[in-house]
Amino acid sequence: ARETMEENAVMLAAEDLDTALSRDPECAAALVWRGYLRTLRANNHEDENNALGDLKAAHELGEDGWLLYLARGCVAIGHGDTAERDKAFAVARQRLDAELKSRPGHLHAWLKSVEWCERSGDLDRLIADHTGILKRWPERVASLAGRGYARVLKKDFPAAIADCTEALEKGDRRALVYWWRGYARTWTGDTEGALDDLGEAIVLNPELKGPLARRAWLQNARGEYDLAVDDATRALEHWPDDLEALGERGYACKEL
Fold first, then answer.
1. Which of 47, 60, 156, 212 would suit a FRET pair with 180, their CA atoms being 20 to 30 Å apart?
2. Model-level pTM?
3. Cβ density class 150-185: b for 16+ within 10 Å, e for less
4. pLDDT (mean) for 230-246
5. Three-state SS across the chain?
């Protein structure tokens, strides 16, 4: 769940944590992780309050690690409390920096730092962390893809394409990697390459949010309005709130 953030992985992890807590309701580590995972799936204040309940219970049981504060920061984002978000994220970062300083050769410490970067939105630090991982563990292909994703968010599309391409060549053929490279290619003028990547992502995971709507965008640009309607409709069947898919379908229907 930490590496992919794909919904099915988060759901499976949540089920395991529910099972663990049914057997030991006072397992502080499980409470923190369940609270954190609940922030990943939160759709409303009730979800956020459930997450906060887990975190409070864990803290009362003595948990005071980095993940507790990262999760608190995520809940604060949902509540619109920027001061609490910044405070919680800062405490989490301090704990992670201390761990990295004491255990620079421990991969798990780096992965926790990556998690913090992804949730806090610190893209420069995220790229630096993935680069640091790759220097120490060059065989870790997931960090190539992760750095590519961060570079997509930074709009450094050529570098993102290079990272994702290398990750794919080394065997990381997840739908997400094709999606990230396909998205980047839509911004570099490589329409055919983008269509190939988006198509591969859709085949590998038809329910992944993004590729269908983005392909509809390309099809509209090419005047293929019937194909755009089909793709946007498929996207909306899985993600009814996908604004890009709604917009692309509306545009295509207007042009037909």
1. 47
2. 0.82
3. bbbeeebbebbbbbbbebbeeebebbbbbbbbbbbb
4. 95
5. CCCCCCHHHHHHHHHHHHHHHHHCCCCHHHHHHHHHHHHHHCCCHHHHHHHHHHHHHHHHCCCCCHHHHHHHHHHHHHHCCHHHHHHHHHHHHHHHHHHHHHCCCCHHHHHHHHHHHHHHCCHHHHHHHHHHHHHHCCCCHHHHHHHHHHHHHCCCHHHHHHHHHHHHHCCCCCHHHHHHHHHHHHCCCCHHHHHHHHHHHHHHCCCCCCHHHHHHHHHHHCCCHHHHHHHHHHHHHHCCCCHHHHHHHHHHHHHC
| Per-residue tokens: 79 | 């509540």
